[in-house]
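Incident review: delayed structure delivery

Summary: a single-chain prediction request sat in the queue longer than the usual turnaround. Root cause was a stuck worker, restarted by the on-call engineer. No data loss occurred. The affected request and its eventual output are reproduced below so the record is complete for anyone auditing the incident later.

Affected input:
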Amino acid sequence: MLYFSAPRSTQGTTVIPVRSGVTLFVLLVACSACTQMPQIPYNVDAHVDSTPQTVVWGHLPSGRQPVLRVRSGQTVSIDTVSHQGVINGMDPVKFFSAAGIAPGEVLPDAIEIYHKAEHPKDSGAHVLTGPVYVDGAEPGDMLEVRILDLKFRVPYGVNNSNKGSGVLPALHAKPNPKIIKFDLQRRVALFAPGIEVPLVPFMGIMTVMPPAALPNTRPPGIYGGNMDFNRLTAGSSLYLPVHQAGALFYTGDSHAVQGDGEINGTAIEASLTPVLQFIVHKGGGRSMKWPRAEDAANYYVMGMDADLDVALKEAAEETIAFLQRERGLSPADAYSLASIGVNYIVGEAVDGVLMVYGAIPKKIFSSNREFWARP
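Output delivered after worker restart:
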């Protein structure tokens, strides 16, 4: 695998040429129910470290210089740091020592970010690496983000809830951080004696730069952002409408595993290195109202709103539009098929703006366009 350090200078950015590196075959975990994992080859064209210079904390500022510049079709590995461990009011080494995590097992970049990265007042919790500038991406285009791999940086993570958070805000009287260790060889989280949760890693935030600066990263939106969409595992694609030249892509809020809804406010938050391929679809974002996604088994449509009922309605309308556009159905037939063949699920119910997604199974169609990842 070929890695390249992200540029450190703020005087300009670097175009990374396509390299013919060593091909790696990666086991992709499409879902926790999968009995077999497909193998997909990829080459890494560039790597971005997570440092105080390459991350933003809790907001998406306007005018920030890219940390990397790539062309459509290139693949990047991006180190990310979980905010759990840096937002808890103490040094990460001290925080994780409560669970017996040795100082040497705490990421040095997490410690450095805690001490040196700017965290503006009233911003969100998330530490995001970026932005990555994708050449040729312009407003009105669509950026496809292919998730090729998700690598664990540490063998532990944190689930943390607090008074006033989640769908049961009165359950806690104070913060309740639970540090959970992993058995990475067996790919399970060791939740408690006799309780193991299969690891299904994904990025809680993948986002392009919104039309304007975002002062707080908590709410998701048309730009993607904090969707906490657990189907975006390795072997899936996320489709985002582009609002700024270069798309200006960020990622972070990495998760080891999360249930739909994320009802106590967090997943198992754990630092990951995603491997992502960026593909620009010219003009593809002009008619997009919300992000979309896809994997080998399903097409995914989304709806978002502060009102869960409205979010469901938005997802239903996206389904009707998709079936009309892609399958030529009448509105009435699309509505009928959505009712009998599409499942609607609360993706997250805790971020102020709630997300509902519809999973449209590919198996109900006699044919589908070719998708890059096989089941």
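Verification: The radius of gyration is 20 Å.
Action items: add queue-age alerting; document worker restart procedure.
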